[in-house]
Write a structure and sequence with these properties.
mainly alpha, Helix Hairpins, 3-stranded antiparallel β-sheet, extended
Length: 182
């Protein structure tokens, strides 16, 4: 095998990339479709830093791992907050969040200003709520089939109501209108 190493000027030898060209004798071990082609293939390998070397010291970028630890702590707090709620409160919050998602989609389609990060945040929150709800069903011994049946029944029983953000907007408009008329 012929091996060629190329190191970028910014990275040291630890971050060097290696290109490997297979020898002609090794073609018999490869599948027929591989060597029947005129292209023999190029495989690029990146050498990983040794286990004892910290990630920030081995890479050229100085990204630290502290923010992910903070995010994990926030998630754990949020999960504790969700686990305290009753199933009815979880159901109500899921309905409200789904209404908020609908409002965000409407804002996006109308090309109004909105935070695109809210989509992901709300979807994740809904998933966490539904996960806790399913965990409680498992504790009660409700199997997957019955859970789906109960979920369909619950979805049919939902009374359509405006999401909290729309209620707040309507109240603000009504207050502004009352000030103008007064």
């Amino acid at each position: 095998m012929l091996s060629l190493s190329v190191a970028s000027p910014a990275a040291a030898a630890a971050a060097a990339a290696t290109t490997v060209f297979p020898a002609k004798s090794s073609l018999s071990a490869t599948p027929r479709w591989w060597w029947s082609s005129s292209f023999n293939g190029v495989r690029i390998q990146h050498k990983c830093p040794p286990l004892g070397v910290p990630l920030a010291a081995s890479s050229s970028s100085s990204r630290s791992r502290a923010p992910s630890v903070v995010m994990m702590a926030k998630r754990e707090e949020e999960m504790k907050e969700i686990r305290v709620k009753t199933v009815e409160e979880i159901n109500d919050e899921v309905v409200d969040l789904k209404g908020e998602l609908l409002m965000l989609r409407l804002q996006k389609s109308a090309r109004n200003e909105f935070k695109s990060s809210d989509f992901r945040r709300m979807r994740k929150r809904i998933a966490r709520l539904l996960t806790v709800k399913r965990e409680r069903e498992i504790e009660e011994g409700i199997n997957k089939r019955l859970s789906r049946k109960l979920d369909r029944k619950w979805k049919r029983s939902i009374v359509v109501r405006p999401p909290p953000s729309l209620k707040k907007l309507q109240e603000e408009e009504a207050a502004a209108e009352a000030e103008k008329s007064a």
